[in-house]
């Protein structure tokens, strides 16, 4: 198919050079997450895919890979003075409250693919408009909205600015009940985002979202990743697919698993891994996310071990690999070895207990809202 005018323009875009040749653009708002069980509040945490994503990119990107976050919050934002990731300043919308979700957990033992929580959007901050994005080229972009804030025209602008865009399906297919904010999904094909898919590099969906994405149609336009909770994930591209094994985890809070997965995956690409190998890093950080409440804290020894593994295993990054033209999808010959080394590193996570307080509900309060609200 010949490129349309927009695509031709994209292909002529100047390549970022110098220290920030691997700079990324993360678009999606921070939010307040309230966790409920049996009608009782059992945790209040910083949320929003952008928060989980920046946490993992900070931890796992190659040293030369910087990124910036475009996020919106209201004057009530409770984590403005929290340490990373929210220290990356959000755009303040004084007239609107911070986006906020109530997540109601059921007591029933969740199967790997059953919805583990009922989500309700309680407040929505302003959308992120195309003009809110910095006007410069980026090596890659992550569209990680939670409440419909990444507008179609904003995604389109990301595609123009970034050499490769990775999208979380939750940014595209969520709809919100007008009465109670209940979150449901709509078919991607019926949304204005569908026509942009062929200019997206990777689209990630959870197994709950996958039927709304339409994997068989979408994989002809971009690589589709379906995350399967404790079973790991599968990648589908035009002409092939792969299953990628998970890492063991004791799940205390599933929130942010998909976000942490996507950032781990992007970091893997930045280190020069193939998509199927990078998915191991996605699974690794997804597993790390579910073992803590809210945005997880990683043990420094674990991170050192992960970086050593990546320095050792990843191919030299003389030219940025995160570039639509140069993705390789297949697993490499060192895939199993990489999994074994990361599994070893994951054990270091438990060298000392994470900074969380057990509250008897299987959900731990790792982060209290800080002052500054
Ligand atoms: N219980 C678990 N044990 C090990 N790994 C897990 C577990 N849950 C999630 N993961 C990892 O995290 C990835 C993403 O999880 P999942 O498929 O549940 O995403 P999600 O439903 O989008 O999460 P969320 O919406 O809560 O952010 C999985 O592919 C897997 O690698
Ligand atoms: O903080 C969480 C997280 O970002 C999840 O990925 C998203 O599904 C929820 O809506 C949000 O509250």
From TrEMBL:
Keyword Nucleotide-binding listed: yes
Catalyses which reaction(s): myo-inositol + ATP = 1D-myo-inositol 3-phosphate + ADP + H(+)
Region (Disordered) location: 351-373
Pfam families the record matches: PfkB
Record keywords, A-Z: ATP-binding, Kinase, Nucleotide-binding, Transferase
Keyword Nuclease: no
EC nos: 2.7.1.64
EC category: transferase
Name of the featured protein: Inositol 3-kinase
Gene source species: Hordeum vulgare subsp. vulgare
């Amino acid at each position: 198919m010949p490129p349309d005018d927009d695509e031709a323009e994209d292909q002529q875009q100047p390549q970022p050079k110098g220290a920030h040749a691997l700079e990324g653009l993360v678009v999606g708002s921070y939010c307040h997450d309230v966790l409920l069980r049996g009608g009782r509040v059992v945790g209040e945490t910083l949320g929003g895919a952008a928060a989980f994503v920046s946490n993992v990119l900070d931890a796992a990107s190659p040293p030369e890979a910087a990124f910036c976050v475009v996020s919106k919050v209201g004057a009530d934002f409770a984590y403005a003075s929290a340490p990373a990731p929210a220290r990356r300043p959000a755009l303040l919308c004084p007239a609107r409250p911070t986006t906020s979700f109530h997540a109601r957990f059921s007591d029933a033992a969740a199967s790997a693919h059953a919805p583990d929580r009922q989500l309700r959007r309680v407040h929505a901050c302003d959308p992120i408009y195309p003009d809110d994005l910095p006007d410069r080229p980026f090596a890659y972009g992550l569209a990680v909205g939670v409440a419909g804030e990444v507008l179609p025209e904003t995604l389109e602008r990301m595609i123009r600015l970034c050499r490769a865009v990775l999208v979380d399906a939750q940014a595209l297919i969520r709809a919100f009940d007008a009465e109670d904010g209940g979150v449901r999904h709509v078919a991607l094909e019926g949304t204005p985002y569908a026509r942009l898919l062929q200019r997206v590099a990777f689209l990630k969906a959870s197994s709950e979202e996958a039927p709304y994405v339409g994997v068989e149609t979408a994989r002809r336009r971009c690589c589709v990743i379906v995350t399967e909770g404790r079973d790991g994930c599968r990648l589908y591209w035009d002409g092939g697919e792969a299953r990628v094994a998970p890492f063991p985890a004791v799940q205390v809070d599933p929130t942010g698993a998909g976000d942490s997965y996507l950032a781990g995956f992007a970091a893997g690409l930045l280190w020069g891994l193939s998509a199927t190998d990078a998915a191991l890093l996605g699974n690794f950080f997804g597993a790390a996310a579910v073992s803590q409440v809210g945005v997880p804290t990683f043990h420094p020894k674990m991170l050192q071990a992960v970086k050593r593994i990546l320095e050792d295993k990843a191919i030299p990054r003389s030219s940025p690999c995160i570039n639509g033209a140069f993705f390789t999808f297949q697993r490499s010959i060192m895939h199993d070895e990489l999994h074994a080394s990361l599994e070893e590193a994951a054990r270091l996570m438990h060298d000392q207990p994470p900074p969380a307080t057990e509250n008897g509900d299987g959900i731990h309060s790792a982060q209290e809202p800080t002052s500054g609200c």
